[in-house]
Amino acid sequence: MKKYSTLIIALTIVASTVAFGSTAEAAKYRLASMYATDNYVVRALTRVADRVREQTKGEVDIVIYPSDQLGNYENCYQEVMRGTIDMIGNYPSSRFNKKFELVSVPGLTVSDEQAKKLLSKDSPMHKFLEKCYDENGVVYIGSYLDAIMYCNIGKGRNIRDPFAVGDKKGLTVRVVPVAAWRAFYTNMGYSVATIPWAEIFSSIQTGIIDADTGMNTEQAVASLGEVLGAHVQYLGASVVVVNDFCISKKTWNKFDDKTKQIIIDAFEAEREREWKDAVGAYYRDLETMKTKLGMKVYTPTAAQVKSNHEVAVKYCWPEAEKIVGKGIFEEINTFLGNK
């Protein structure tokens, strides 16, 4: 009887050990993020990690390293590709796959509601990014909203009608070196420039450039607040910036199907809250810009939103189609119900 009981106990231990595939012992998996712990994306990923830890009974322990502790996002993504870092909250840089430029195309959506739908797991963009990451040897779980990008203009600049198409603004704006993104601003009458991230503040302060399009409102308020005078909401031609939860294939292949599904479900379970937190942060920052920084906020009329979108479709999309093809735009339009 004693031997029989001992056998039962041993079998129970073995069964619990293999319940989550190869994660036999409590294993720690490193997740790199560029953002600080109080950022809404990191908070969401922290809740994802908590869910996974709870549902795997502590055997999959995702440890988040915020604020570039493991290196900047491009270096960390390379390590995820190699399998030396397990996971990342990633901005999809075209340095690693030119087709990632899709996420930098203005005017894919015309409203916050459409932007939310675009990021869903049923979206053509989700399927497109999944293929792109697979080409890099990385597993794509999904996208959270990082920011909806607009334009921040320096103090003391003479701002003509910012929504007049083709009107020479007499302003130089920093835009990342993505042809589709730049095409919007050049066709709206701006000159465009490439300035390193670390030099944005001094470049606006000294007049080398007049405006920036590459910081979200949280970053702009914190880093550029004292040199900014206006915020232009280019609704209809905004860029929906994503932060993608990715896992190295080396790490992913350690998990059994049950564990993989737990991770996917945990990410999806936090999608709605992360979206609300991200959008809420934007509007809080907008209020800070107006009330504390004294910035003027330019918001387009419905007719101007339509006009902005037409500029994006006419001039920006063809630039991106050279890289990603025309089909993905047709799929996104159909999915979102746009003509």
Detailed description of the structure:
This protein is an alpha/beta fold and 339 residues long. The protein folds into 2 domains: 23-146 and 240-280, 3-Layer(aba) Sandwich (D-Maltodextrin-Binding Protein, domain 2); 151-238 and 282-336, Bacterial extracellular solute-binding protein, family 7 (D-Maltodextrin-Binding Protein, domain 2, 3-Layer(aba) Sandwich). The protein has helices at residues 2-18, 40-55, 73-82, 112-118, 124-135, 179-187, 200-206, 217-224, 249-252, 257-269, 271-291, 302-324, 327-336; strands spanning 27-32, 60-65, 87-90, 138-149, 151-154, 172-174, 191-193, 211-212, 228-232, 239-248, 296-298. The strands form 2 sheets. A 6-stranded mixed beta sheet has the order 7-6-8-5-9-11, with helices on both faces. Strands 2-1-3-10-4 form a 5-stranded mixed beta sheet. Helix 2 (40-55) links the parallel strand 1 (27-32) and strand 2.
